[in-house]
Write a structure and sequence with these properties.
Length: 308
């Protein structure tokens, strides 16, 4: 894909000013600390700035992607042509007084932040999201979940900005959620996620906090520290990807500085200056080993983006 032309680049500099940077390594914006340079990096601090950035880039036919917390993505060593919008839109508003309380949050906020703030208000139902990585936008996109809960179970409506139809509010049904997937992840319609309204419920703050601490402790016990993308593969029906990878003898396997965790085999760790190419080769090796030994093709939960 061609780089942004000088004429378009000049217009974008005028439009975004110091909110735009050029030729920036994405390793500083991904959870795995991996990724080559983006032609353009544009920072959005609120939903209106997400709309402005998307509108301008679509108008100028400059391709772009959104990054929030940078988890669940593997960015290529060659980087991303066009623009990357870094989503820092983090406004959160609770309706805590009604019989059916809700929260409306912009897509750049972390699910953990929502869960912690809800707990202090005595609002339950989102405890499962305590300490999960990434942004709300990423969670909405991939139907994130843990400990028996997921975004599909909380979501009431999502606000999007559509390339042809402008700002729209979608009911949860329109997201067509399935396990770790959604309409957006499967079909990639031309929309940008702006915010979401989530259902909560009243409960005792101490009980909510105790449950979140229990979940966080389990996460620390079961999931390795270090720079990773989160769970690498989706769990196949009636099995666990981590169990299959461990049974295939893959714990501790490395290519370069990309390593399969010895603590949990579904986590691939950047132990130094890992290259995306090494991580992708390790993914292919793991898929092949599991396929050969168990006849199961593991499907990526992580998305590979950029030029490969």
């Amino acid at each position: 894909m061609a780089r942004v032309s000088p004429a378009r680049l000049a217009e974008l500099r005028t439009c975004f000013g110091d909110r735009m940077q050029e030729n920036v390594p994405l390793s500083g914006y991904t959870a795995a600390r991996i990724g080559g340079p983006a032609d353009l990096l544009i920072f959005a601090r609120k939903a209106d700035e997400l709309v402005q950035a998307a509108h301008k880039l679509w108008q100028m036919e400059v391709p772009f992607i959104l990054l929030g917390g940078g988890s669940n993505v593997l960015v290529s060593d060659r980087g991303v042509r066009g623009a990357v919008i870094i989503n820092h839109a983090r406004l959160v508003k609770f309706d805590s007084q009604s019989a059916r309380p809700t929260v409306r949050a912009e897509s750049g906020v972390t699910p953990n932040d929502i869960a912690q703030r809800a707990a202090r208000l005595g609002l339950a139902g989102f405890e499962w999201a305590a300490s999960i990585p990434g942004s709300l936008g990423g969670a909405l996109y991939g139907n994130a979940g843990a400990f028996g809960g997921d975004i599909a179970g909380n979501l009431l409506t999502v606000e999007v900005y559509h390339r042809q139809h402008g700002r729209q509010t979608w009911p949860v049904e329109k997201m067509e959620y399935s396990y770790r997937s959604s309409l957006l992840k499967r079909d990639h319609p031309p929309v940008v996620l702006l915010s979401a309204e989530l259902a909560l419920k009243h409960a005792d703050p101490q009980a909510i906090q105790a449950k979140m601490e229990q979940f966080s402790a389990r996460r620390r016990t079961n999931q390795p520290p270090g720079a990773s993308m989160g769970s690498m593969f989706k769990n196949p029906p009636d099995d666990k990807a981590g169990r299959l990878l461990e049974a295939a003898g893959l714990k501790g396997k490395s290519i370069g500085n990309a390593t399969i965790s010895t603590q949990h085999a579904n986590f691939f760790i950047n132990t130094g200056q890992a290259k995306a190419a090494d991580m992708r080769a390790l993914i292919a090796l793991a898929q092949q080993a599991v396929l050969e030994q168990f006849g199961i093709k593991l499907e990526l939960e992580v998305e590979c983006i950029g030029e490969w």
